Amino acid sequence: MAGSALRRLMAEYKQLTLDPPEGIVAGPISEDNFFEWEALIAGPEGTCFEGGVFPARLVFPTDYPLSPPKMKFTCDMFHPNIFADGRVCISILHAPGDDPMGYELSAERWSPVQSVEKILLSVVSMLAEPNDESGANVDAAIMWREQRDEFNAIARRLVRKTLGLPP
Amino acid sequence: MQLLLSSVCMALTSAVIGFAYYQKQQFYPAVVYITKSNASMGVIYIQFFVIVFMFGKLISKIFLGTLRAAEFEHLLERFWYALTETCLAFTVFRDDFNPRFVALFTVLLFLKSFHWLAEERVDFMERSPVLGWFFHIRVGSLLTVLGVLDYVLLIHAYNSTLVRGPTVQMVFGFEYAILLTVIASTAIKYVLHAAEMRTDTPWENKAVFLLYTELVIGFIKVVLYLLFVVIMAKIYALPMFVFRPMFFTLRNFRKALNDVIMSRRAIRNMNTLYPDATPEELRQSDNICIICREDMVNHSKKLPCGHIFHTTCLRSWFQRQQTCPTCRLNILRTPTVNSTAMPRQADEAAAAAAGNPIPAAAGAQPAGGVPPPAPVAVDGNQARANGNLAGGLPPNFADLFGDATGLPNGLPNLAGLQIPPPPVMPMLSPFMMPPHFGYLTPLPPPPMPQDLTNFTDEELRAMEGHQRDHIVQRLKLLQNINLMLDSAGIMMSQYQSLAARLQLTAATPASAANGSAGSSVYDMPSTSATAMAQMEAHQVTPTAATSAPSPTMPIEKVTIEDLGADADEDDIPSTATEAVSIPNSDADFEENSSELGELRKRRLKFLEERNKPVAANERTTAE
User: Fold this and answer.
1) Are the Cβ atoms of B126 and A3 closer than 8 angstroms?
2) Is the CB of residue B272 less than 8 Å from the CB of residue B247?
3) SS3 B407
4) Is B111 in contact with B150 (CB distance < 8 Å)?
5) Is the ipTM of this complex over 0.85?
6) Which of the two ends of chain A, N or C, has the fewest CB atoms closer than 10 A to its terminal CB?
7) Structural domains for chain A
8) HSE-CB for B464 with a 13 A CA cutoff
9) Which has more confidence, B453 or B246?
10) Contact (CB<8Å) A1/B197
């Protein structure tokens, strides 16, 4: 019998494979390491990210699900809540103790009840509705707030890029 | 790349040796030539490191197979730190700097790298779904070899220090001692992981064993580092090169200590505060522990909020956070709410136990058996629920009034309203009114939370446990709290409407303050008069009576003195009649709640009856 973190990850993988939520594919990169996952997230319809398929990598700690995983987009992203290096900044991924941005309610933070599926769904809704108060990418936040057309244009360019189309 | 580098190195070395031999033609002079020339020595050193590197590759191929990317990354990172620290160590021992010394440090670094790799491998066991016997042989032999090497080198360093006094060997002895502790903790972890893999069920106590291992090893390491720093500082100089690892060791030790404390607290809380989930509760829920996503068959706990989890899952979560994982209820705060009225509850139960066959503390009542009679039922003819409430409450509230007299009033303007005397109304309540109104009559200020440090073991025991008795006790307590909250709520609404009225009356404070100018008071439908009426019900003193119409206490006092005793006597009937008119004139007050209206009517009736003789008296005195 393996460790509890591994068993839970296997259970989640099974669940995600049997009943995948719309627009999300996720699973371990290799079957002999369940602690690194790759996820593909489809840009939500009706937003500037529509049509894109964004790859991301999830790294789980050994004490998962007590601690949250880390999530990082492996493609170029331009979004108020995604750092320039691809790291995702949403409250569900933050352990209740630390508050890097100083505004999150502890009720929105990580708890063992959360899961990969919930994280990815939150990311999809984050793509649809950026939170411009979190300053993961300040440039993107300002542009999203003040020059929405330009922001949308950049997003559409990124979408084409992830699909391998010429910009 | 590596191949190219090593072949270039090989070529250089052969060139240097070949050149020396070509020049000197003989072995001995050639060796002397090479050692005398710095450039040749440099080449020989580099060749030496390349050989060590290749040897390391070979060993890791044998014991570890292919390194995973993460392992390699961590190895590189730690290696650079170790290298800089070694260079720092060189500065302390610059006097004994010689090839032998460099060789010894190389061996140390070499062994250290394998210790790290072994650690990583054992940590990886937790993540890997399948591990063959080959893995176990490799890790087992690696750990054995490293342990033996550490031990031999430690003994060697110890002996040479004994023979030659403190030299650089002391550093090595210390380093190998640290490495031995690393090997020990790695081996223990390996055994624990391996043991867990062999069983089919999750091994619940593994986390605890790991915690204590961390703690003990951390402690040994801290002691070793401290000793080393002290000794080194005495003999040589402050060993800068151990500060970084020492800092990390101290930090880890502190974390381990904290973890152990938190874990113990979590275990204690779970054992004492939360009941085990019963099979029925498990059947009612979906029977899956949301933390590990596995079925709950045994060892599950139910939190005060009703959520059920595995005991072990909860314990490891409580180590980090004292909240319910599902609803984030603070579990450390909740039980204190339960126990707020605990001493009273227990007192009550003890008081009632005299007439009751089953003492409240009797834990032997089998669950699911015949429901025991409520231990506080004073009136046997009342329905049981009422018995719980009405029978249980009067002593409780009498106590609370006692407390309340000591409380500072939150609304000083309404000071006259405060503290009805306990014996008058509460005794009436269960008999005169529907039981749930009973406690409303005296309108006590909301009780303050009790001091929680004062219960006796017996009182606590009455509340703990999973027997029916205990649950009944808890439920009763909650009902009491509920009642208190209701009364506080009604009081608040009264206060609110009073405050609204007071603002109106405050516009004409002069007339209100003047007790003899009775006419103005008569005409004004003021709620201060109601306040007075309430107070009248309990306090017959003339002082309080005059005080009611005026919004603030100080003014009242002045008026009392000014008016003298006879003015007070005049006032009493006037305010009483005023109060009688209130239910009619105050439409919105009555809207507030029908219960209040009911109460007021009763009170007014009471007042009227009592005022008749007073008025008669007055008439006689006036005549």
Assistant:
1) yes
2) no
3) coil
4) yes
5) no
6) C
7) 4-162 (3.10.110.10)
8) 14
9) B246
10) yes
Q: What share of chain A is helix, strand, coil (3-state, %, to 5)?
A: 35, 20, 45
CB atoms within 10 A of CB B264: 14
SS3 B286: coil
**Per-residue pLDDT tens over the stretch B377-388:** 334 343 343 434
What is the DSSP pairing of strand B300-302 with strand B294-295?
unpaired
CA distances B476 to B393, B469, B479, Å, are 10, 11, 5
Residue pair B298/B289 in contact by the 8 Å Cβ criterion: no
Measure the CA–CA gap between B577 and B594, rounded to whole angstroms. 22
Residue of B130, B292, B325 lying closest to A4 (CB–CB): B292
Tokens of B338: 């339960």
Task: List the catalytic residues of A.
Answer: 89
B-chain CB neighbours of A67 within 8 Å are 320
Mean pLDDT computed over B370-397:
40
d(CA A89, CA A103): 13
Closest by Cα among B392, B390, B389 to B355: B392
Contact state of A2 with B126 under an 8 Å Cβ cutoff: yes
pLDDT for the residue B113: 92
Mean pLDDT of B301-306: 79
| Helix-then-strand count for chain A, H and E | 4, 4
Q: Crossing angle for the helix pair A116-128 and A4-18, nearest 10 degrees?
A: 60
